[in-house]
Amino acid sequence: MKNVTDRTSNPFGLRPPFDRTAPDARTAVFGYGDANADFHLIGDHPGAHGGKRSGIPFTDTDAGLAIQDIFRDLEFVSGPTDEPRFENLFGSYIHMCCLPDGHQPTQREYDDLERFFDAELRAINAHILLPVGTAATDHILETYTTQRRRFDLETDDLHAREIRGRGFMVVPIREPDEWESGDRERLVERLEAILASDYRQTKGVATTVG
């Protein structure tokens, strides 16, 4: 079932009740891209992976642009870096609201926004979930797989690894500023292999909003 919407940013009209920004600052960086995407790229928050200026996930910051560059090479992304076009790709954050520069969301702030992220993830209903960094990977493995206890998030073993979830395939991505030699290539090779496979068979069960 396809989503019928012509909205690229915040296609489902989410309105999270959270604002800790200055009056003239952006309040949130909403999910962005193809609402019928097979690949869902999931970051931490706007201060970590960008968008406080552009309003688009994975822009503005070095980390965000490094991730965007991977998907540009694989032809998921085209157009200007600060206003990219996503094809078969949706990008969003587990904590979409903006915070003052230098602030990290507290656990309570993550929890306050979790239901909005979950509703969007289930509405997109992608086949492949791509969490970036420790916070996003921890949340995705804990919430959408039964395998969180098997993994140590402090190692690089999860980077570009395929993990079966509850109706999703999860491929964690290490924080770009922690990449070592070969990490970028490993991720590109993994994504190329998935694209060459019948990856749509990875969905074992249907998921719905609710």
TrEMBL record:
GO biological process assignments: DNA repair
Domain Uracil-DNA glycosylase-like: from-to ranges: 30-148
Keywords: 4Fe-4S, DNA damage, DNA repair, Hydrolase, Iron, Iron-sulfur, Metal-binding
Any Pfam family matching the protein: UDG
Keyword NADP among record annotations: no
GO MF terms held by the record: 4 iron, 4 sulfur cluster binding; deaminated base DNA N-glycosylase activity; metal ion binding
Region (Disordered): 1-20
Biased composition (Polar residues): 1-11
Gene3D superfamilies referenced in this protein's UniProt entry, alphabetically: Uracil-DNA glycosylase-like domain (3.40.470.10)
SUPFAM superfamilies for this protein: Uracil-DNA glycosylase-like
Domain of life the protein comes from: Archaea
Name of the protein described by the UniProt record: Uracil-DNA glycosylase
